[in-house]
Amino acid sequence: MHVDLYEKIWMYAAGAIIVVFLASMGYTTLGRAMQPPSHVETIDPASVRTDEEFGRPGVTIHEDGSATVVVQAFMFAFLPLEIRVPRGRDVTFRMTSPDVIHGFQIVQTNGNTMVVPGYVSQFTTRFDTPGEYLIVCNEYCGVGHHVMSATLIVEDAPGTAGASAGIESSAATEGDR
Amino acid sequence: MIHSRKLTLANFWVAIGAFAVASGMAFMQSLSRANLDLPFRTASVYYMSVTAHGVLMALVFTTFFIMGFGYVVAERALGRPIVSRRLAWGSWWVALIGTGMAAAVILWGRATVLYTFYPPLQAHPLFYIGAALLVVGSWGWCWVMARTWMTWKKANPGVRTPLPVHGMLATIIVWVLATIGVAAEVLILLIPWSLGIVDTVDPLLARTLFWWFGHPLVYFWVLPAYVIWYTITPRIAGGKLFSDPLARLAFVMLLLLSTPVGFHHQLVDPGVQAGWKLFHTFNTQLILFPSFVTAFTVIASFEIAGRMKGARGLLNWLEELPWGDPAFSSVALAMLMFAVGGFGGAINAAYGMNAMVHNTAWIQGHFHLTVGTAVALTFMGTSYYLMPRLTGRELELSLLARIQPYLWFGGMLLFSIANHLTGLAGMPRRVYDASYGGSEIAQQWVAGTGISAVGGILLFISAACYVAVMLGTGLAGRRIDPEPIEFAEPLQGENGNAPILDRFGLWFIVAAILVIAAYAWPIFEHLRMERFGSPGFAPF
Ligand code: HEM
Ligand SMILES: [Cu+2]
Ligand SMILES: [Cu+2]
Question: H or E stretch including B526?
Fold first, then answer.
């Protein structure tokens, strides 16, 4: 098969670009362990509202200063409505939906996951800049989709690492509906 | 004399009708996004309209146009009428009835589930049945096309399959492999569930089957556009095709790689292991290659056209191209936008960067460049070329036709850039109102939504021009002796080059193996998990 010289050069260049793309993906995933949220865990959507964990959404601060945030995403709100997490610490989000598919996006960060009924979404991240963040639902979930939002507040951890064991923060009570 | 003239026109008119309705919807949507107070503006009308726009543009306009285009291409390139015209008409009716059913329940407000129809959002059963009929109709088209080629092949042993038909056969293989996924989703999961025969459905399994279909769907649109770029546009420009075998290579690579990539739409889904996502993402990056090849070959073909008209300098061949001919300018502008869209696509499919843009307005900025312009504007340009040749009528309102591609280009530039930027700033897609109770962060998006609305108005005017030209031509164009429909000749002879690229049976099998490699194991693993289904919800 005859290929023109210029086209040959172009094809090698195109191949090289693709190799660079692939290599950079390989480096970030394998070298720096950056993975998109891919947690595999199932849950009965009918039991979410009475579930031990998801029926009482809220923030738990662990002994090492890291935090776990349990979120219930439903038509058309998130619980808790306001999430407070410590700055610069690992924050693990766990969430599910009792009804349709939702999205959970912390605007202007790479915190972004789908929330699918029957499954538990989970990802761990850190926030280095304190302040107020907007959380929005980014998957169409019905006529109230555009009002579905919440607030994330990143604040300096109360006390030093280890000193603030097991603080449970707000909003757990709104969970049992 | 074109035997499938009526058949092609029947398909084109459905496509144009769907496009016209969907453009009206789009106009309303982009104004709504800018928070203008319009009397009919409510959230449920908005989401209904987005559903209608998505379904009519992405599924109906494209499919009918491609079916009509396929018939003329087969007949003109193979030099024989298509086989079983009866079946072809039957398929048209089935697809049309399906479209009518789906459109009716959408407008009735019983299927506001968007064109992705993710369960557990549940539409009226007629929505799913209508969609299934549209697909069944398109299968009839695949059958007629494939049989026509086989019959021709038997009568012409040893003759190379003409390039345009080669591209259409690749399209058909992509479509058959892709629609297995959506057919399984709709027939096995969604129709019984919406009829109440089963109570629950697994939303993640449905999503996986949907995206098995959803990405190759993109290549079902793009391949015919490539056929036009390779084989029709160089001819309109007055040149030759730069390289025939490389065009075939691009078609075969797209055929192989367009399906085993669907998880790149589910990069942030729970319940899918990271390894599978990574595998699909790698495949996705490989699909860039045939598109790079296409860019070179087609631009080189245009250069040949310019030089054949006497251009000598480095770039002045560009001036020799027929920019005033809408059949050319629309395609050239469409290609330009595709180049930008392609780089955006590489970003979307980058495993890590996806999380910044997933389901934001960036995505709608992106696919309005690819399907909304590269494909749609190419199809519009092609109808300026084909309509007079099919109807035997001169292009009416030709001034409108001449400015239409430029209007679209300008409108899309504003619309797309604005949506890319607001998306990067975190604005979600598919929202009726992006003010979030006056949130300060949401305020940053206001300028972008305004610019996007201006772009939307220009796009709507352009769409209206196109529809007016089509209607004018079809109903009132001056009768002329139609010119023949012809394809570009290759610069180098087409025979004797890499005959393996024509082995469609072989490529079909390889493609099927790749699909199995990409999906069989993850779906098997998925089915083995303890899973909980969801009942339906209709919050619209
Ligand atoms: C008349 C010019 C057009 C305008 C002004 C326009 C405008 C829009 C707008 C504003 C949306 C956003 C809906 C949202 O996310 O809230 C949208 C969605 C969409 N458009 Fe267009 N569009 C146009 C042409 C096209 C064309 C030609 C195609 C494809 C052939 C297309 C395919 C789509 C699809 C698939 C969606 C996604 C719907 C969804 O998210 O469910 N559009 N369009
Ligand atoms: Cu939502
Ligand atoms: Cu894709």
Answer: helix B504-528
Query: Which own/partner pairs from B193-201 qualify as long-range (CB within 8 Å, at least 24 positions apart)?
Result: B193/B119, B193/B122, B193/B536, B194/B122, B194/B123, B194/B124, B194/B125, B194/B127, B194/B128, B194/B536, B195/B125, B199/B533, B199/B535, B200/B532, B200/B533, B200/B534, B200/B535, B201/B119, B201/B120, B201/B533, B201/B534, B201/B536
Q: Report whether pLDDT(A164) > 50.
A: no
Task: Count other C-beta atoms under 10 Å from residue B299's C-beta.
Answer: 16
Is there a catalytic annotation at residue A76?
yes
Identity of the amino acid at B62: T
Residue A135 in contact with residue A50, Cβ under 8 Å? no
ipTM over 0.85: yes
Can you tell me the distance from the alpha carbon of B463 to that of B405, in angstroms, rounded to the nearest whole number?
9
* CB-side neighbour CA atoms (13 Å) of B196: 1
Q: Which of B47, B364, B431, B540 to mutate to test the pocket of ligand 1 (most atoms within 8 A of CB)?
A: B364
Give the mean model confidence (pLDDT) for residues B320-330: 91
Cβ contact, residue pair B539, A143, below 8 Å: yes
Show the 3-state SS of B58-108: HHHHHHHHHHHHHHHHHHHHHCCCCCCHHHHHHHHHHHHHHHHHHHHHHHC
Find the mean pLDDT for residues B277-283. Answer: 82
pLDDT at B518 over 60: yes
User: Which chain A residue lies closest to B206 (C-alpha atoms)?
Assistant: A116
Give whole-number Cα distances, B513 to A96, B220, B257, in Å.
35, 19, 11
What is the Cα–Cα distance from B331 to B333, expressed in whole angstroms?
5
Output the six-digit token pair for B329.
């300018």
Distance separating alpha carbons of residues B362 and B383, to the nearest angstrom: 30
In this prediction, residue B312 has a pLDDT band, given cuts at 50, 70 and 90, of: confident
For ligand 2, an ion, list residues with CB under 5 A. Answer: A 137, 141, 145, 148
- Mean residue pLDDT of chain B comes to 90
Helix or strand or coil: residue B360? strand
pLDDT over 90 at B39, yes or no = no
Cβ neighbours, 10 Å, residue B213: 23
A120 and A42 in contact (C-beta within 8 Å)? yes
Q: Residues B450, B34: contact at Cβ < 8 Å?
A: yes
Residue A34 has a pLDDT of 66
Instruction: Give the model confidence (pLDDT) of B84-96 as tens digits.
Output: 899 999 999 999 9
Stated as kind and residue range, the H or E segment containing B315 is none
